[in-house]
Design brief:
The complex is a heterodimer of chains A (405) and B (242).
Chain A lengths: L2 E4 L6 E4 L6 H27 L14 H15 L2 H7 L10 H21 L7 H6 L6 H24 L7 H24 L12 H28 L6 H30 L2 H13 L2 H23 L7 H29 L9 E4 L13 H24 L3 E2 L6
Antiparallel strand pairs in A: 1-2, 2-4
Chain B lengths: L1 H31 L13 E6 L9 H10 L14 E7 L6 E7 L7 H5 L5 E3 L5 E3 L9 H5 L6 E2 L18 E2 L5 H4 L6 H8 L5 E5 L6 H8 L15 E4 L2
Parallel strand pairs in B: 1-9
Antiparallel strand pairs in B: 1-8, 2-3, 4-5, 6-7
The chains are: A mainly alpha (405), B alpha+beta (242).
Amino acid sequence: MSTSSSSHGHAAHGFHVLAGRSPWSWAFLIFLGLFAALGGLAALYMEHNGHWVTGMNNQVPWGLPHVCAVFLIVASTGALNIASLGSVFSKDDYKPLGRLSALSAMAVQAGGLCILLLDLGRSDRLIVAMTNYNFTSIFALNIILYNGFFAIVTTYLYIMMEPKLEPFYHPVAFSAFIWRLIVTTGTGSIFGLMVSRTAYHSAIMAPMFISMSFSFGLAIFLVILTFLRGGSGRPMASPQLQRRLLVLLACFIAVSLYMVVMHHVTSVYSAERRDFERFILFDGGIFPALLWVGFGLIGSVLPLLVLLVPFPAVGAAARLFIASLGVIAGGIALMYVIIVGGESFPIDLFPGKIVSSSFFDGVVGTYSPSVPEVFLALGGFALVGLIVTVGMWVLEVLPDRQSGG
Amino acid sequence: MSESFESSRRDLLAGAAAFAAATLAPGVVLYANAATTGPVSDKARWGILIDANRCDATCDGCVKACAEEFGVTSFDRPATDPQWIRKLTVSDPATGVTRSFPVMCQHCKHPPCVDVCPTGASFVRADGIVLVDRHLCIGCRYCMMACPYKARSFVHEDIKDQKSFAPRGKGTVESCTMCVHRIDDGRKPACVEACSTTGHAAMLFGDLNDPNSEIAKRVAAVTTTQIRADLRTDPAIRYQGI
């Protein structure tokens, strides 16, 4: 086990790489590798045959891969929360987890971007996307923002690991915090700037996505911490910090819920959007179920209860883990509603008129994810686990003693 | 030994010549297909006026002509089959008035598809025709999400029997080109020509910027509308009687 120490903040902390490459840890890595490989094979299958083998079609051009990709990309910036709390907001208790937070943020974003890239019609043209920019396109700007995120967070992580660069610690940490807000603004604006569909084109999309990133990202980070705890047998956060995390995650969940509620309430008051709201809130089959039960109940209300109501029999760590799983499940459900639900509602070429055609005009789009899409999405999540695990093996990101202890 | 060396050198040269020919030939063909009506400029703005009163609900001559012109064939998978032009039936629930007419890419002056395209593959030509550069399209489908007219299709499977003037490709997005290859040859779009052949003559093609053109005169004389005019995309396809 190699160790290093850094004096960022008030107290010096020691760090080490993930120790103990036991058969179990290898098995875990192989398990993740298998899913990542299956994701790659699924992408090859889709690329070879064309997208007709997926559930996507000309009415619903973005399916489950986009849902999971956007979820991960949104969550990635939130996975940086803990690092920002330690550096930008000077909460010393969080500092020992800053390195792991930065590594997780990059891993989660890499997983999301891989899914997005492999779902393109022409994934082989990545170089075209990297060398031809249309600057009115929020997609093009996002490519720059995502690349910038990797550059800034890599620098941030390096500075956290290199005591000689301490003078740059605060400026880079602050830049990373501002950049992550801009990145998520860009992701939300993919939908917020879209004038064509009733579901989108709203200024609330960007701040709503930022609020979602705070809760989804923290939830993913807490799951990573829980896995680490299970693997090493020692808590990564002190009981005191765990209690603070209970309140922090609850606040983030509450803000996300508030944003989503206000988004729909505002839309209901517009006669133009009322049909869509009726569809997404009540009549639209799976979408209202995913919104109310998936995001509302499993992703918001139950996690809030688990986090805020004292359960003497259940420890704080377990409550954080359970709530985080709920937030992640609810987050994916919400993203499915936003993306697939928004597309499925027919485009209104002639508002107020009854429209039909051979091209499914006026008809609710149909979409059900195919097996390759499911594996491509799972592959992205597996890649996140792979990058975090290998990153912890080679980089000194784990604190020697309990965070906040 | 020396003979075999000569032979392999000849093979190499022959191979290089074949490679060069294969590389250059498409460019030569493209050059040969360049506009015969002179350089494209913004002097003209090509448009189509569609008279819904003259369009027969049972006729799909324009749709068939387009499919034939570009080899847009069905794979018997309606949800993923591309459609460049379709017949829309629109009825007013309050009055019961029903109209049928074709809808295709509206060739907007301010096209949302061009705004959102990350690589610039979607672009507006100087004369207002909205096109997709198939070499730049990465198949992200953001333009399909952003088009208010549902005018774009994603190519979901391998394409056979392609036309040299309109290359298509699996994994890219496509839509009506207003038969730009015909316009550059001084001809009318295939759908307009077919509509005329069927005797309905519901489609009028021409230069909206030329006050002496028939389309400009008609647009100036009768009330015409653009689909979703409230979005201010300013389509070049106008409708009468809807």
